[in-house]
Task: inverse folding
């Protein structure tokens, strides 16, 4: 039976209740199935009622003096407070059942937000509270479940509209939401600046049931923050729905996992909406100093419909994702950031940085690690100015499908930065493509102070104006695979290796030809500006593709240059070294070694050689063969080593050989030189007449009473050691020559008959 409500009677009843609480301390009452304890309150209001719709407006509220008779087993608990703190302790060993539990939710728009706390504790034995419908929390609401207690059966929406509310799951306690499909957990739906925490001291568990979403900030909300901290685990979070931070245009909302908190769930949407503009400055943070947080999620979407400045940030945490990742899905300046000691495992799934109309989106790995990454697309379907950066000791390892594409049917400049200032970084990817398909150019790969390992890679695959730059401390190891600079009608693509940069173990082709040898690419270039290239093979097979060998070191096991231009080592002013590592090296239009450049090694050169620098066969004693003509010009220096009797460097020329410059020969092993030893330094088809070395620097053998006979150098290529004639022998020879002259000059005397 319902008693008519009288305001005057309500005030009297409220005063009586306040007086009893103040002077009696703690009051326990058994109503229905549950034993309740109301403590530490001056005007806390506690009701257990079956009144309908009391949570929707002040007029439907329940106040002191209202009739609470006729309650059923599906009861409703409202703890609210307007004047001072209120605490309700549910202390029972029974399997108790509630219809709804609301804390400070009488009217969330007018509630003062003074603390109101519900504590579920086990009493003599484990306690289970079954809430068959809603859990509602408003300003200042606190739910604490202690001592292994369990709250389960929340099947309707969990609505959290107030600020400064908290849920604590202590002593291994558990909260099972069990939400029915379409009923979500929401912090701030149209409400702003709400702060909430979920904590645990020792292994609390909140099982969301998986059927519904988990939203922090929604429908244009602003500044809502949920912090999950301590050893609490949130599991089954939207496994068949999604988890959203800043959905429906909300901004400045954050979900923070820290200090060992764990979250397992499904899809993650940051500032994502099906229509209209997305929100901005929304953040999902995982980790914190000393944290070991884990979040296992499905598909990741950051931003939509112009959403900007949204991010997922990992620090000292572990994060596993099992679905595709989209950073900047039609949005701008969105990012995933993996910092110190954080590890992200995307389980070999695709990572897209910038998609559709998305611009300036980023994946930053600075001191953290990304492992088992799938395909990485930096700027795709029109997106531009997107960046993948691995720096400050960061590591990025790909899985089986881990290919990286910088600029895929995109516009603008997209960039892959490996390394940078600070600690060196390590990256291991599959194939790398800088500029793919119809990408409209200016995509860049930068490698500095880092190690990048990759498979077969292309700079400009059907796309133009793309580049790769390897600079100080950067090492790109292609692990014996192809590196193509310009392919499939691509133009103006380049690889530049600067001072301190290294490209190794690569089969390099500059300008890949089309079918039947047709020139399919043009104006593609390999440039050496002081760096080092180790090429298993270097090929240029069509015109207007070039090597600009200004300075640095080129090591090649096979070279094939047929682009209508002489291959020039060095620019004449800087140091350049071309090391031939065996094999055949063909130069259709000749090989030129400039001043300040050096040609060293063993192998076969096919083509004419012109030397203005240093020519030195072998890396100790070796042989260099040239099928063609050799011109040793005025600035030329030929360095040859003697290693023992009959063992020395050798230059073999099939055509003509023109001497010039300086010939320097050294005794590299310090063996004993002796009279009669002959060393063949050159073999040649012919010697160009009237050419000779301007200066010869040969081992000093005067102490051995020997001298070098070089008279056969222009005919046989030999030099020979001979004895220096003794001084006495020279005098006798002189006397004999003098007498002979005298005899020739004496007039003949004819004898008379």
Result:
């Amino acid at each position: 039976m319902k008693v008519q409500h009288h305001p005057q009677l309500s005030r009297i009843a409220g005063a009586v209740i306040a007086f009893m609480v103040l002077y009696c301390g703690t009051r326990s009452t058994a109503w229905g199935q549950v034993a309740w304890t109301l403590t530490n309150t001056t005007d806390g209001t506690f009701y257990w009622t079956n009144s309908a719709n009391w949570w929707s407006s002040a007029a439907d509220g329940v106040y002191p003096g209202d009739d609470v008779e006729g309650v059923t087993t599906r009861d409703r608990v409202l703890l609210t407070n307007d004047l001072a703190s209120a605490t309700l302790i549910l202390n029972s060993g029974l399997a108790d059942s509630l219809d709804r539990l609301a804390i400070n939710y009488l009217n969330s728009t007018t509630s003062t937000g003074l603390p109101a706390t519900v504590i579920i504790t086990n009493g003599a034995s484990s306690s289970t509270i079954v809430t068959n419908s809603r859990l509602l929390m408003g300003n200042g609401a606190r739910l604490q479940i202690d001592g292994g207690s369990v709250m389960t059966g929340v099947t309707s929406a969990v609505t959290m509209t107030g600020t400064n509310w908290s849920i604590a799951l202590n002593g291994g306690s558990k909260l099972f939401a069990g939400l029915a499909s379409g009923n979500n957990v929401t912090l701030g739906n149209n409400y702003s600046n709400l702060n909430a925490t979920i904590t645990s001291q020792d292994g609390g568990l909140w099982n969301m049931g998986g059927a519904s979403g988990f939203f922090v900030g929604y429908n244009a909300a602003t500044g809502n923050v949920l912090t999950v901290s301590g050893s609490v685990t949130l599991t089954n979070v939207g496994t068949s729905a999604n988890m959203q931070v800043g959905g429906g245009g909300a901004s400045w909302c954050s979900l923070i996992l820290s200090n060992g908190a764990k979250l397992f769930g499904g899809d993650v949407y940051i500032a994502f909406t099906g229509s209209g503009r997305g929100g901005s400055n929304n953040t999902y943070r995982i980790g914190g100093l000393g944290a070991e947080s884990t979040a296992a999620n499905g598909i990741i979407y950051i931003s939509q419909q112009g959403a900007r400045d949204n991010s997922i940030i990992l620090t000292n945490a572990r994060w596993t994702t099992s679905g595709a990742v989209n950073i900047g899905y039609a949005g701008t300046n969105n990012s995933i950031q993996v910092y110190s000691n954080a590890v992200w495992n995307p389980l070999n799934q695709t990572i897209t940085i910038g998609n559709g109309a998305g611009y300036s989106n980023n994946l930053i790995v600075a001191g953290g690690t990304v492992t088992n990454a799938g395909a990485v697309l930096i700027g795709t379907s029109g997106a531009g100015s997107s960046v993948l950066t691995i720096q400050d000791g960061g590591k990025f390892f790909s899985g089986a499908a881990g290919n990286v594409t910088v600029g895929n049917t995109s516009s603008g400049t997209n960039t892959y930065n490996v390394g940078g200032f600070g600690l060196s970084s390590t990256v291991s990817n599959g194939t790398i493509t800088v500029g793919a398909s119809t990408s409209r150019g200016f995509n860049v790969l930068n490698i500095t102070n880092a190690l990048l390992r990759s498979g077969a890679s292309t700079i400009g695959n059907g796309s133009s104006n793309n580049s790769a730059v390897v600079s100080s401390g950067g090492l790109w190891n292609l692990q014996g695979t192809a590196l193509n600079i310009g392919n499939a009608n691509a133009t103006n693509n380049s690889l530049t290796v600067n001072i301190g940069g290294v490209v190794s173990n690569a089969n390099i082709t500059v300008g890949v030809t089309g079918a039947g040898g047709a020139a399919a690419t043009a104006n593609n270039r390999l440039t050496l500006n002081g760096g080092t290239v180790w090429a298993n093979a270097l090929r240029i097979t069509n015109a207007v593709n070039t090597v600009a060998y200004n300075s640095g070191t080129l090591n090649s096991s096979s070279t094939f240059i047929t682009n209508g231009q002489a291959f020039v080592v060095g620019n004449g002013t800087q140091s350049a070294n071309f090391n031939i590592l065996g094999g055949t090296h063909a130069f259709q239009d000749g090989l030129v070694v400039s001043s300040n450049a050096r040609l060293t090694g063993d192998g076969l050169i096919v083509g004419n050689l012109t030397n203005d620098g240093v020519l030195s066969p072998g890396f100790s004693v070796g042989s260099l063969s040239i099928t063609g003509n050799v011109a040793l010009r005025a600035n030329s220096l030929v360095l040859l080593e003697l290693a023992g009797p009959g063992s020395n460097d050798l230059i073999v020329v099939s055509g003509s050989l023109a001497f010039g410059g300086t010939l320097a020969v050294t005794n590299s092993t310090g063996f004993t030189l002796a009279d009669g030893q002959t060393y063949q330094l050159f073999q040649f088809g012919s010697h160009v007449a009237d050419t000779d070395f301007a200066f010869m620097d040969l081992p000093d053998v005067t102490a051995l009473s020997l001298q070098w006979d070089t008279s056969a150098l222009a005919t046989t290529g030999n030099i020979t050691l001979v004895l220096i004639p003794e001084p006495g022998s020279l005098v006798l020879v002189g006397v004999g020559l003098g007498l002979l002259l005298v005899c020739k000059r004496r007039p003949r005397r004819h004898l008379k008959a």
Remarks:
- The mean pLDDT is 81.
- The CA atoms of residues 497 and 645 lie 42 Å apart.
- The helical segments are 7-24, 727-745.
